[in-house]
Amino acid sequence: MRAFVKPSSDSDQCELTEVAAPQIDADELLVRVKAVGVGIHDSYFLPGDAKYPYPIGIEAAGVVEEVGDSVRGHRPGDRIAFISSMQPKGGTWAEFAAVRADSLVVPVPPALDFVEAAAVPVAGNTALRAVEALQAVPSGGSLFIAGGSGAIGTLAIQVARARGWRVAASASEHNHDHMREFGAETAVDYRDPAWPDRIRTWMPGGVDAAIAVPPGTSGETLTVVRDGGALVSVSGDAVTPERGVHVQVVPHESDVRAELVRLMAEISRKEKRVVIEEVFPFGEAPAALAKVRTRRARGKVVLRVL
Ligand SMILES: NC(=O)c1ccc[n+]([C@@H]2O[C@H](COP(=O)([O-])OP(=O)(O)OC[C@H]3O[C@@H](n4cnc5c(N)ncnc54)[C@H](OP(=O)(O)O)[C@@H]3O)[C@@H](O)[C@H]2O)c1
After folding, report:
1. DSSP conformation letters of 75-113
2. Cβ(215) to ligand 1 under 6 A?
3. Is residue 100 within 8 Å of 110, Cβ to Cβ?
4. In the chain, helix, strand, coil percent, each to 5?
5. Cα(25)–Cα(99) distance, rounded to whole angstroms?
6. Would 5 disulfide with which of 47, 53, 115, 287, CB 3.0-4.6 Å?
């Protein structure tokens, strides 16, 4: 099969090559990959026991080709989207992937195409877990999202609005109408030094909660959270809590599989939208990764494999 691989543990290259398709174990699915969601960590999220050449990538959508002997609940022909990370046999930048059946695997509704489906698992899972961590915020409460125009931010705005929260979000000005389309009431430009004042004008005393997506945004975001409120740092910034604000990273232990299945269904019914910045042919995967690395992508970057 064709795959983008890291050829050896000491290489920082990623090259397109022919490798053997993975053989599955009893607890795995063999998936024919149709589309891949591209993430900033794809080229260095590797397990210690990786087998080289190692196909990189952690999320995709495709069709189940084979099912391991002990797997229940999946059949050849199923359309699925999934996160499969840190697996020694390799990841998703490949025509086939071996996926543990107990990893985050969700059905792709018939009306949803694979490109859209591949854009959802990581961004959806992260947005849902970040919102879930703020469940103490009541309907009518207020949320600020730093980085509201990215893949995670646009989904988080929609999930928060569905909870009845009022939302403000930051991005540069050309993305403000875009964030408003998803339900942000107030949009601020993170390059404007007065943006925290604008949020405090919108919500005197500060917002009930905040989600800081881009790295390095949590410290300034903390200043617009009310005393005793809550902040989730998606990129894991180190911040010193103050004024009784509860600061946390996205909790990895929370299980939002059911919510992710619902989100997929809502997207397929066009009740929610996953934003795709650009779809690249599989052979142009390095350009897709370069685009994500600019941290300017409006939504998700996806590779079309077949
Ligand atoms: N904790 C987890 O489980 C987890 C999982 C997945 C990803 N992540 C992290 O999430 C991040 C990726 O998020 P993403 O996919 O939504 O993409 P992203 O690359 O963070 O989003 C890009 C968007 O953010 C805006 N932006 C850039 N810098 C900003 C700033 N300083 N303040 C406000 N907005 C800014 C850009 O808008 P403009 O063009 O308008 O500037 C662009 O539209 C990565 O840092 C990754 O490490 C964490």
Report:
1. -TT-EEEEE--S-TT--SSBSEEEEETTSEEEEPPTTS-
2. yes
3. no
4. 25, 30, 45
5. 9
6. 53
Contact 186 CB / ligand 1 (< 6 Å): no
Alpha carbon distances (Å) from 144 to 22, 25, 166, 221 = 43, 44, 9, 8
Give residue for tokens 């229940």: 72
Helix (H, G, I), strand (E, B) or coil at 1: coil
Q: In which residue are the tokens 């909660």 written?
A: 209
Determine the distance separating the centroid of ligand 1 and the alpha carbon of 297, expressed in angstroms: 8
Q: Which residue has the tokens 């797997």?
A: 71
Confidence band (pLDDT; 50, 70, 90) for 144?
Answer: very high
Q: Is the distance from the beta carbon of residue 150 to the nearest atom of ligand 1 less than 6 Å?
A: yes
Q: What percent of the chain has pLDDT over 90?
A: 97
Cβ of 234 less than 6 Å from ligand 1: yes
Structure confidence at residue 253 as a pLDDT band (50, 70, 90): confident
Runs of H (alpha helix) within the chain: 114-118, 121-132, 151-162, 176-181, 195-202, 218-222, 257-268, 285-293
274 lines ligand 1 (CB under 6 A): no
Sketch out the chain's domains with CATH numbers: 2-119+275-304 (3.90.180.10), 124-249 (3.40.50.720)
**How deeply is 217 buried, as exposed, middle or buried, from its count of CB atoms within 10 A (0-12, 13-18, 19+)?**
buried
Tell me if the pTM is above 0.90: yes
Structure tokens at 202: 């919108």
Give 123 Cα–ligand 1 centroid separation in angstroms: 10
**Closest Cα partner for 205 from 224, 187, 230?**
224
- Structure token digits, residue 211: 């989600």
Query: Token pair of 297, please?
Result: 């992508």
Give the Cα separation of 222 and 143 in Å (integer).
Answer: 12
Q: Which helix (H) or strand (E) holds 38?
A: strand 28-38
